[in-house]
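Q: Give me the 3D complex with zinc ion.
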Amino acid sequence: MSRPLALALEQLLLPAECLVCHQLLGHGFTDDLVCPVCRLRWRPVRRPWCERCGQPEPHFGPCRLCRDWPDQLRSVRSAVWLDGGARSAVHALKYGGLARVGRDMAAVLARLVERPAARSLLIPIPLGARRRARRGYNQSEALAAPLARIWGLMNRPELLVRTRDTPTQTALTPTARLANVAGAFAVRMGVRGLRTESQDRNPAIVLIDDVFTTGATLAEAARALAAAGFQSITAVTFGRASLPDFN
Ligand SMILES: [Zn+2]
Ligand SMILES: [Zn+2]
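A: Here is the predicted complex, encoded as structure tokens.
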């Protein structure tokens, strides 16, 4: 089936109502999945936060969340707290087969998070092959593609691969999360070509992920990119989960 036809069919099959509150979407919003009211209810992550990891937890002395990250991972920012309607949107993106909601999330993210430096490359956190095949798409890519359009930056999902499927992180303690993702990423060799084709010899990388919890996945991806020679890595996520209490 042609892509325009598939899109038209999807429009017909999906009722034009908000994914979160189920109110009918008004004229002019029928391309959206989440209504303007629900988008405004998503709770922005605000300062004061740790300048590096963006975690607004009060802390004294060095921040424990980001102290073991590789030096090249300079900052991480998240748009909204993962609760209420924001959690529903992430759920639809991850488990509901609704890649299109990534556009709604990207629009809100771009409003709340500062645009990265010009000529930065966006790299969505890759999924393992098996999980990607089961889901049919990578949710981080569904977020990175519209973000790249809004920000006018290049989206380069092919640069980073996940070398193995890692068990889901949800039930793991922060330490177990680190071990779980160790060595899970590799940089494609084509990156050398990228260096010569790019105006920048060492372009800034912006990792894109749907949710930030402890940062273990982002730190591990940054480790692989740093080993390949990238010096400036930041990351942006749509949601930030409040850290579960592991005591
Ligand atoms: Zn709504
Ligand atoms: Zn920190």
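A quick observation: The pocket of zinc ion (ligand 1) is lined by residues 18, 20-21, 23, 34-35, 37-38 (CB under 6 Å).
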